[in-house]
Amino acid sequence: MKFNQNREEVEKLPVDFLGFIFYPKSKRFVGENTEPGLFNSAKTKVAVFVDENAFEILGLTKNLGFEFVQLHGKENPKTCLLLKDQGLKVIKAFNLSEKFQFEKLREYETTVDYFLFDTKTELPGGSGKKFNWEILEKYQGTVPFFLSGGIGPEDAEAIKKLQHPRLFGIDLNSGFEDEPGVKNVGKLKEFITRITM
């Protein structure tokens, strides 16, 4: 029951979203047989997928009461719009590098609710590494975004200095874990305190 207990502890903090990984190759995969009550969260729950069939996503999110999906694969705008039209809020992740072409985001602007900008890696999933945040200055779109990729407790001051008008939220993952899927509540609490001061 450690995941359930950890979730409940995290929920006591001023966080808005809780992510649950439904990608079987991830070391944070919630599994086929999850702990009872794991998804009984009062926070906004985000189901994370990588190149999953849209109808599988719809079935799972409906059965488990998810309102948000986060897509980390090669999902096209048509897939995103299908999910959005079914009432889901869609976060589409893109891995950024110095060569990233922000023009490719235009076709997603009417099909998603948020972008998530992560570090470019060879395989899906977190790398624990940051990308050059100066790249964000090239993003001139209208869709708000989450910042992700290698963020740790030491980054609070640098994030506070980011002035991008579309920065909506911060995705905190491996830099705040004791083990895959188990957050260090003390680190989270300290970071939230520093970033909101």
Automatic annotation (TrEMBL):
- InterPro entries tied to this protein: Aldolase_TIM, PRAI_dom, RibuloseP-bd_barrel, TrpF_fam
Give UniProt keywords alphabetically: Amino-acid biosynthesis, Aromatic amino acid biosynthesis, Isomerase, Tryptophan biosynthesis
Q: Mind telling me which Pfam families this protein's record contains?
A: PRAI (PF00697)
| Top enzyme category | isomerase
Recorded superkingdom? Bacteria
Q: Which reaction does it catalyse?
A: N-(5-phospho-beta-D-ribosyl)anthranilate = 1-(2-carboxyphenylamino)-1-deoxy-D-ribulose 5-phosphate
As recorded in UniProt, its EC number(s) are: 5.3.1.24
UniProt domain N-(5'phosphoribosyl) anthranilate isomerase (PRAI): residue ranges: 10-193
- Which GO terms of type biological process are on file? L-tryptophan biosynthetic process
Q: Which spans of this chain does the record mark as coiled coil?
A: none
Molecular function GO labels:
phosphoribosylanthranilate isomerase activity
Which pathway does it operate in?
Answer: Amino-acid biosynthesis; L-tryptophan biosynthesis; L-tryptophan from chorismate: step 3/5
Its family? Belongs to the TrpF family.
Q: What is this protein called?
A: N-(5'-phosphoribosyl)anthranilate isomerase
